Amino acid sequence: MNFFSPTIAYADFNSFLININAQIVNPIINVLFALAIALFLWGLFEFLANQSNEEKRTEGKSHMLWGVVGLAIMLGVFTIMNIILNTIGVKNIHPETGKVDKFQ
Hints:
Keywords: Membrane, Transmembrane, Transmembrane helix. The protein has about 100 residues and is mostly helical.
């Protein structure tokens, strides 16, 4: 009997983390992407609908800018993560199951 490697507890914790990732983190990321796109589109609508009101056009420009900044930050994080994972040789990550197919 090995007391120093509790495999059952580790498996339970691992499945707990997988469930948190699948049910909480991934939907939050999807909502943030949707909000950034919605903010950009709302700014575009404000900019185009208020051609005569310079204050509203400036507000629309600001919304478009922050929507693009949000998208750029999120896409940049995913790009950096993929560069790091490709550099160390990790391929085919399945976050829903917590498995990595192969290391190169």
